[in-house]
Amino acid sequence: MRERTILAQRGLFQVIRDGGNAPVTDVVERLTGRAPRTLAQYAAENAEVWRAE
Predict the structure, then answer these.
(1) With a threshold of 0.85, does the pTM exceed it?
(2) What ranges do the domains of the chain cover?
């Protein structure tokens, strides 16, 4: 892998790790008309779909 690519990826991961792409907005609620759910809420509400038969 080229050094330039590695440096770019390191920079991207640093932004993600620092929370730079995690701003909270009201977009989900405005688009769907419902408040957003956490991943834990989604998983609990849909657990049966993911269970093995």
Answers:
(1) no
(2) 3-50
